[in-house]
Structures are given as structure tokens and as C-alpha cells.
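Q: Here's a chain of 288 amino acids. Please give me its 3D structure as C-alpha cells.
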Amino acid sequence: MKVSRWLKLLAIHVGLGVGVSAGQQAGSPTDAGTATARVYEVGPDVVAPQLLPKEWKIPDAEACTRESDDEISLSVIVDTNGKPHDVTLINPVGTALERLAMRIVEADTFEPGTLNGTAVQVKVPVHVSIEGCYATKKDANGNSTEVFRLRAQPKQTLGEKRRQEYIAPEPPEEPDAAAQPEGLKRLDPETAGLEHVGKNGVSAPVPLNSVEAEFSDEARRANIEGVCLVSAIVDTHGNPVNLRIARAIGHGLDEKALEAVRKYHFKPAMKAGVPVPVMITIEVNFRL
């Protein structure tokens, strides 16, 4: 069983939630047929839209130059006919997976959301898990181009889905050195020139990939759940280094959290156009 993950940069207050109250107006649609209709967010009286099943054509197997899997988070307004519009990316980076995720959501069909039983326009986040690869394709003239292909049916989830979250970067308590895994690249926080996100024009690091954290066999057998906090310094190359367990769960889950975070890569934090190292704390939620 894999652990769900969704990244949110709280250090710069990026909000990915849905609706603070029922009936709150979220914005104005651009579709001409619903230009004057109110847009709601999910709340006590507003029921979220439901995604209707859809099968995507998966191309025949072909040689892939490289695989690329990720989960893309978007925002969409579903109108009273169950059609999506105003599809926008949350924290866009500019990848082929993002462009494909937008095409998938724009082609979706929904059961519309309702307010007290009446269909209304509802704005919701949607998260698209994509398994794909880059392949080389030749045209009629023999010219080669690189294309992005689906390797499996995309999986979509609507609504707020808390995943591994970035929380305000505060130095963790110094853990027992004997408990730290060996072989991690280290920076001295006192001499690494660390900056603080949000201060003096320092932007937050932006995640460029998304890696699933696995349950350990021990935790799965014992039905162990919880939250593991991993602190890390994102260096000027966008690599997470100085990984430390700031809050442990045990049962093999701490090691699984570290394995996932080691594979992250970021667009580094920037100050005046120059990459700078910053400390972040990553919350890894393990839920069965």
C-alpha cells in the first residue's frame, strides 16, 4: 500500500483547500452559458461534484527513452451540466505531465455539485496521478520527435487531499546522532549561509517531482499510522541534504520517509535571482 502525498508550501501560504464556508462565492466563470451563475465551494450544504468514469486510450507499447510519473494538482469549476471549465494548475512548473493533466481534466465529465439538492457550479481541486514516458516517434519523412505517452490509465481524486506538506521552516531539535542514517551529505547549518523563506525577498523552493513513500511491512502488519517530520536543507542545486528525523514514528516508517525525501528535487529558493540554501520541514503522513 502506498502513502498518499500532496505537497503544499505553507511557508508562502499557498492554499489548496476547498471552501471555507457553504455558499461562499469562489469566482466568475468564463463559459458564456454560465457567465452570470454563482460559483460555490464545498461546504456543509454544498456537495462536491462526482467524477464519472472515463477510459483513456493507452498507446501500444513502444521503446521509452525515459519514464516520468507524477501527481499534478489543478483547480476546476464544474458547471450545472457537469462540464469542467476554468481549469488551472496549482504551483505550475511547466512540464509535459502538467500539460497532459490539463487535457485530461478538460475532457472530464461530472455529476454536478449541489446546494440543498439543486445543481450549482462548484470549484474543487483535482489531483491527477499520471504514469507516462517519453518516446521517440518518426514522421512520414523519417524525422524523429520526442512525445509523451501514457503508460496506464490516469487516476483522479477530487477535493482537498493533504499529502506530504511543507510547513514553516524552523530548525528541529537536534536528534540523537546515533539514530541518523549513515551516508547522507551534510552541510553545517551554521556555516551554510542559510536564508529564511519569506524574509529579505527569499522565495520558497518549488518541488519538481513527487515521490511515493511506502509503508514498511512491520507498520502494515500492525496497522500503524502517523506523521513523520523530516527536516532538510534544500541546497543551491535543488537537492535535499542534511536529512534528519525531527519527529519519529518508528516501525520502519521513518526510514521509508527518508527514502522518499532523498529522491525529491526542487527548483532552489531564490534571492535577488540567485539560488540560496534554505531549511524546510517535510510532513510525511502515513495513513492506511
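Q: Can you summarize the key feature?
A: Residues 1-35, 162-185 have pLDDT under 50 and may be disordered.
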